[in-house]
Amino acid sequence: MLPKGLPKLDGFLPEQPKEIFASPGKCIYCGSSNDLSDEHIIPFSLGGKLVLEKSSCPSCAKITSDFEQTCMRTMYGPLRILYSLPTRRPKQRPKKLELKVKYRPEEKDWQTILVEQNRFPFLITFPYFDTPGIINEKPIDQLEGAVTKKLWIRGASPYYSFHDLLELLLKDLHAYSVFPESKADISAFCKLLAKIAHSFAVAKLGLSGFKSTLEPLIIKNELSNCGYYIGSTYNDEPPKNQLHELALLEFKNIEAILVKVRLLSKLGTPTYIVAVGKRL
Ligand SMILES: [Zn+2]
Question: Is 11 within the bounds of a domain?
C-alpha cells in the first residue's frame, strides 16, 4: 500500500541568503533608464534571493519573465510544489498533477489521471552541454545553437527510491504501466542561464566593469552562438549544501569573464559555465 503522502520536503532545500546589489542606473539588457524594476538574479520562483535593484526596463522584464516562466512550467513545476519553493500565487498551486497511465497491456493510448502531488512520480531534468566554444577554442561557425545531446534526469524525492514509488503506485492504481514524463525547453533554459550569469556579473563588476556579450542572446533570441558562450561539465558532481551556486571564475590565459551557475546544487545537478563578456 502506498503511503498517503511522501515525507514533506519543506526545508530539505536550504534557503539562499538574501543579498541586495545597488542599481546600475539603467537597464542591464538594453540601456534604457525608463521605469526600471528590480531583477532577481536567480528567479524568485526557484528561491532566488539575490536582487539587483532597478536594473530591468518594462520591455526587457517582459521578455525575461516569459522565458523564466517557460522553464518553470516545463522543467520545474512539480519540483517547486513538492519542495515548497516560493510562488506569488499560492492559491493557484495544484493539489493534483496529471499522470499518464495504462490499465491493461493491450490499451493503445495512455489515459491521463490526476495524482496527489505528494505522491506524484516526477522527474527533474537538466541538459548537459559541451564545454563552451570560447574555452576550447571551437570556431563559432561549427556550433549548433541551443541543443543538448544528453540529459541529467533524476526522480525527484530524495527520501524515496523512484523505482519503489513507481511499483507502489502501479499496485495502488491497479495499473499496468505509468509514464513519468520529463520535459525540457532547451532554448528557454539557455536564455535563463545567460540572464542569471549576465545579471550576476553586473552585480559583481558593474556594467562598466566588463564588455558584455550576452544581451542579443537574452533579449533578441539570438541563440545560434549559444554553444560558444554556454556549456556545462559532463560529470556527476556531489551535492552541495547550498540552494544554488554562483561564482565568477578566473582562468589564466582566457580573456573571457566566466560565471559558474549551478541551480539546485543540493540535488546534485550539473554545473554550467557561462561566458558573459570580456575583461576591459
Ligand atoms: Zn531594457
Answer: no
Question: CB of 37 within 8 A of CB of 58?
Answer: yes
What percent of the residues of the chain are helix, what percent strand, and what percent coil, each to the nearest 5? Answer: 30, 25, 45
CA 130 vs CA 98, 125, 148, 184: distances in Å: 33, 17, 8, 17
**Ligand 1 centroid – CA 60 distance (Å):** 4
Residue 8 is assigned to a structural domain of this protein: no
% of the chain at pLDDT higher than 70: 96
For helices 58-71 and 186-205, the axis angle rounded to 10 degrees is 130
Instruction: Please name the residue that has the C-alpha cell 559558474.
Output: 260
Beta partners for residue 152, in sequence order: 126
43, part of any domain:
yes
What does the pLDDT read at residue 2? 46
190 neighbors 223 (Cβ within 8 angstroms)? yes
Compute the distance from residue 216 Cα to the ligand 1 centre, in Å. Answer: 12
- Containing structural domain, residue 200: 19-279
Ligand 1 centre to CA of 169 (Å) is 48
**In-domain check, residue 10:** no
Count of structural domains within the chain:
1
For residue range 166-218, what is the model confidence (pLDDT) as tens digits?
A: 888 899 999 999 998 888 899 999 999 999 999 999 999 999 999 999 999 99
d(CA 258, ligand 1 centre) in Å:
23
